[in-house]
Amino acid sequence: MEQLKQIQGIRTLAILGIFICHTKCYLADNIGFWDDVLAQLGATGVFTFFMISGFLFSYKNKPICIDQHTNPVKLAWKKVNKLYALYLFTFFIAFIAKITPPTNERWVTMVVASVFNLTLTQSFVPHIGIVNSFNGPAWFLSALFGIWIINYNCPQFVNFFIKERRVFHLVLLAMLILVTQTFVLKGISIMPLDNLPFKKDSYYTWLTYFNPIMCYSEFLMGTLLGKMCVKNQMPKQAANIIQILLLCFTCFYLWYRPLFSLLHVIPLVVVTECIVFVGILSTMSEYSIGKRLLSNRLMVFWGNISGYFFLIHGVVNFSIRAFCESYFGKPFLFFLSLCVSLILSVGTLLIYKKHLVTLKFV
């Protein structure tokens, strides 16, 4: 399939949002209102990557065909193993950073956590300290691994979404997923978690954000989106109008969120998914403003290295916090992290190309 340049551009926006979320502490000592807004950019970027994975899977129009002798875990592993070498390298750097200074208690915790990290299963269990990704952003790879395990264990389910061709039914399925997410998230928010043997906030965060089941719903939204883009191309004028309105709504919503009483009932995750869904759908229109902006060479190139950047910027931030924070001020640290992460990502791209390894999220 020919590369969809605007999808690479969307990846660029997503990885920038994640980077800004993780390094906002280096922008200024007190960013006030913007702290919550920039934090939301990170979650939006992650949702976007999961939706893009589902989008490309559906857009390629290849239903899963496996027999009873096939090992689903091995098939799922093939979907993520191209990034595992870099993942392993960043894991060891983060391990060294977190083990210092070494103590007996810390060694035990780190060894147990390493088992989950090395097997890409850290997102499968409640998100508490012992199973956190040493390289924080790397949990995405674990969740993606879980998504493909689900796909290969339940091929009939995901193929149902892939084979559906009627746009009206696709829209209904998307609405069903969003409504289900709303009820699940609202249900989780009122669960009695106070008596659990770990922090309530950590468990809630895992249930609503890190676990592969929740991420799978975003993947399914992407499969519906991919099928809709195959079947229909939005007219250029309509796409331009939608993109402008969507940008205005997003800015207005972020700035005046307390005024949206209805949206307080709807979880922010669901609102964000709707914005990303409509945004990607409109950029698939030929010659639309969004497509032209996202398809320029710089955006496409950054999208091509987004997978490397995703894993690398986490350990760069660790290193800056350990070695540079005492010597440099803000916002210089922010731009230092950005430049170092970019340089290392480009270098990794050249190494991968030299050894004939192609990076793809799907």
The structure class reads mainly alpha
Distance between the termini: 13 Å
What Rg, in angstroms, do the CA atoms define?
A: 21 Å
Number of strands: 0
Number of helices: 17
Q: Which term fits the overall shape?
A: globular
Strand content: under 5%
Brief descriptors of the model:
single chain; 362 residues; mainly alpha; globular; disordered C terminus
Topology:
Blueprint: H1 5-23, H2 34-59, H3 72-80, H4 84-99, H5 104-118, H6 139-153, H7 155-163, H8 167-189, H9 200-210, H10 212-231, H11 236-255, H12 261-265, H13 268-283, H14 289-294, H15 297-304, H16 306-323, H17 332-354
Helix pairs in contact: 1-2, 1-15, 1-16, 2-10, 2-13, 3-6, 4-5, 4-16, 6-10, 7-10, 8-10, 10-13, 11-13, 16-17
Structure description:
It is a single chain. The longest helix is centred in the N-terminal third of the chain and has 26 residues, at 34-59. Helix 2 (34-59) packs across helix 13 (268-283), helix 4 (84-99) runs antiparallel to helix 5 and helix 6 (139-153) crosses helix 10 (212-231). The chain is built from 17 helices and no strands. The protein starts with a helix and ends in an 8-residue tail after the last helix. The protein has helices at 5-23, 34-59, 72-80, 84-99, 104-118, 139-153, 155-163, 167-189, 200-210, 212-231, 236-255, 261-265, 268-283, 289-294, 297-304, 306-323, 332-354. The radius of gyration is 21 Å and the shape is globular. The protein has 362 residues and is mostly helical.
